[in-house]
Amino acid sequence: MIKIAPSILAANFAKLGEEVKEVEAAGAELIHIDVMDGHFVPNISFGSIVLDAIRPLTSLPLDVHLMIENPDQYIEQFAKAGADYITVHVEACRHLHRTVQLIRSYGVKPGVVLNPHTPIETIQHVLEDIDMVLFMTVNPGFGGQKFIASVVPKIAALSKMIKERGLAIDIEIDGGITAETIVPCAEAGANIFVAGSAIYNQQDRTAALQQIKAAGEA
Ligand code: DX5
Ligand code: ZN
After folding, report:
1. In terms of Cα–Cα distance, which of 176, 164, 131, 145 is closest to 42?
2. Any catalytic annotation for residue 34?
3. Using CA atoms, how far apart are residues 72 and 130, in angstroms rounded to an integer?
């Protein structure tokens, strides 16, 4: 089963509530929330007050992607604001195992994110402790970038590792996802797909979302 997680980074912030409700009605399975601090990535987005605002408006899980330094310092805040998943970058965590346990201690599902150049070996010893691996298929920081195809073999390798170890971990892909780029990622074993511009920059968001999902399921 393929799940689509629209990224609100590409939404119209002047009417964010409606933008979230629209993709929920269109068949989205999660809402992807991109948090950027201007240090880990060269851009600033927003903090937990945005979760406070949208949490009452949707019953979908909130998938919080922290592109920030020192994530431990902010996990409680995002958990209390209603995050269902919190993913942290392996590149930003000095004590990854501790961070993952901290997320879990708030009843939130922990996930780990890998930048395009980061090998999967960096997370092999925390796989038993996490619910999701998120592969970046762009360099994080901005929506609307071009998909980096060299990440696909990493997805296949992790998918194999997860199966061999009998684990149930979601594999999520983020960056440049369209009805074309979803295909090799789904074939490689990914099951959750973030899409920002490919949904929110379209006139008919429902058609766009359904087209991407259908391409991934084909
Ligand atoms: C990039 C973010 C992505 C981004 C995806 O740093 O993590 O979630 O919003 O946007 P698109 O789908 O336009 O590449
Ligand atoms: Zn993201």
Report:
1. 145
2. yes
3. 16
**Domain 3-217 part of CATH 3.20.20.70:** yes
Nearest CA to ligand 1 atom 10: 143
Dihedral pair phi/psi, residue 168, rounded to 5°? -110, 90
Structure tokens at 57: 């408006």
Judge contact between 128 and 100, C-beta under 8 A: no
Residue 19: C-alpha distances to residues 35, 84, 152, 156 (Å): 18, 19, 30, 33
Q: In whole angstroms, what is the distance from residue 15 CA to residue 12 CA?
A: 6
Residues within 5 Å of ion ligand 2, judged at the Cβ atom: 34, 65, 174
CA distance 51 to 90: 23
Kindly report the average pLDDT of the chain as a whole number.
98
Atom of ligand 1 nearest to the CA of 43: 6
Domain extents in the chain: 3-217
pLDDT tens sequence across 47-96: 999 999 999 999 999 999 999 999 999 999 999 999 999 999 999 999 99
pLDDT cut 90: percent of the chain above it: 100
Name residue 92's amino acid: A
